[in-house]
Amino acid sequence: MPLPLILSLAQVDTSPATATGPVSPAVLLSGAAAVGAAGLVLLMQPGKQSLRIAGTVLALAGFAMLFVEVLKRAGGSGEGLPPVFPVIFGFMALAGAVRMITHPRPVFAALYFVLVVIATAGMFLLLGAEFMAFSLVIVYAGAILITYMFVLMLAQQSPVAGVGDAWYDRMPREAVSAIVVGFVILATLSETFFSPAGQELRDSQMETGSEAGLVAAWDRLEGMPKLLLETAQKVEPTATAVVVREGATLVARGDSAVVAVKLADGSEKEVVLGPKHLPDNGRQIGVDLVSKFPAGLEIAGVVLLMALFGAVILARKQIELGEDERRGLAGMRRMTVEGEAGGTGGIR
Amino acid sequence: MNAIQTTMLAATDAQTVNAALLVSALLFAVGLVGFLSRRNMILMFLCTELMFQAAALAMIAFGKVHHDISGQVFVIFILTVAAAEAALALGLVVLLYRRRETLDSEAWSELRETA
User: Fold this and answer.
1) Chain A / chain B CB contacts < 8 angstroms
2) What is the rounded CA–CA span in Å between residue A8 and residue A169?
3) Residue A245 in 3-state DSSP?
4) pLDDT of residue A220
5) What's the ipTM?
6) Residue A160 CB: number of other CB atoms within 10 A?
7) Is residue B50 within 8 Å of B41, Cβ to Cβ?
8) Could you tell me the fold of the domain covering B14-106?
9) Which of A86, A143, A199 minimises the CB distance to B19?
């Protein structure tokens, strides 16, 4: 079996790289980002197939260099094999995003944005945010994108035969300076995220924070008596009530917690809960939302209500303006439109 | 076979977080480039949605770093703001389109300061 051999070789190969990773020059990330940016410049040139291919290759190379360097800085298992799913979802998201800003047809750009949403939802799943992953797909791909699609189809001119798509969709505006701005942002962000100091801070936070995170989760559970009883019933099905002892219903001990419950026959019993008994991701988010951010929840409701009012007012004005315009223009435009295509007369 | 599967599938948390942060930074940069370089007003707003995505991804990645679920709760608020923004911005874009019969943002360049 050559597989262990390959693995051990990879291990030998990456261990010095991991050791030199943090001290490697800071320009490495910026250089990779610059390669990707150069590829994007080529990709945004309209209409030249060979430039586009070269741009794709360059952009892919830049992205791949960034990924390799960043994953190397994470250290990790030292197994040498790349973590497959984050890389797949990352490339899906980036390819979708780049295609979205370069595609000459707006409807296709919106569809590529759906690809980005789905890839991001995959990333959310990998990060353990199941509830948000699915609500992202439902809200973004299901609701917001449909709104965009409707407006695109409402407002978009159909491509003229011979000319093709609208010129303003084919020609980017100031592509090079836009990419320079984007590159500066990217270099700053990646240097902030992945500098050796930042990486070290994050690593130590991930190691030490795990205990605190569990304690916070137990705290949240304690604040919800009914959920606590349900959780205790997972371990002790005959429990009927949670008993308060020394002013607390739950005592966290390391990663487990102890709850005293009253059983159906009247006796009391201590139940030990482990991390696997914690409520699922959706419930934890719900409890956190209503217990820690009640004001934010209210404000979010007000924001949505105001958006609703605003949309209604915009739509009302739109009809009035249309009538005014019709009166002001005295029908001349309408006649030409009706002469060309009778169906569009209703929109104006 | 089992060994290769587990090693391939098991990205460490640090690796996943790093990849997510990188993707978030890249998505934000690409969204910014798109916002600056697209002329179509609807697509400009779509690019801001891309930047919202990047922010949400960063929120969740940092929530993972700190083992704090509030990062995921913030994404709910981001979604709320994005939905409200989409509803209002698209209404405005349709109004603008009615006026000029084009989605080109340069049709409104007279609004800027005269240089």
Assistant:
1) 316
2) 52
3) strand
4) 80
5) 0.89
6) 9
7) no
8) Helix Hairpins (1.10.287)
9) A86
Q: How far apart are the first and last CA of chain B?
A: 68
- Residue of A89, A112, A188, A189 best to disrupt the B interface, most CBs of B under 10 A: A189
Bridge partners, residue A269, by sequence: A261
Q: What mean pLDDT do residues B23-39 have?
A: 93
Q: How far apart are CA B61 and CA B13, in angstroms?
A: 10
Cβ neighbours of A140 in B, within 8 Å: 49, 53, 79, 82
Q: What is the pTM of this model?
A: 0.81
Closest CA to A183 of A25, A24, A35, A57: A35
Distance (Å, whole) CA B26 – CA A120: 12
**Please, are residues B79 and A137 in contact by the beta-carbon 8 Å criterion?**
no
| Minimum mean pLDDT range among A182-191, A298-307, B45-54 | A182-191
Pick the CATH number of A3-194 from 3.60.21, 1.20.120, 3.30.420, 1.10.1740: 1.20.120
**Predicted pLDDT of residue A342:** 42
Question: With left for phi above 0 and alpha for psi between -120 and 50, is residue A331 left, alpha or beta?
Answer: left
Burial of A263 (0-12, 13-18, 19+ CB in 10 A): middle
Tens of pLDDT along B55-112?
Answer: 999 999 999 998 888 899 999 999 999 999 998 998 888 888 888 888 888 888 888 8
Which sequence spans correspond to the domains of chain B? 14-106
Domain positions in chain A are 3-194, 209-278, 294-346
Partner-chain contact A117 B53, CB within 8 Å: yes
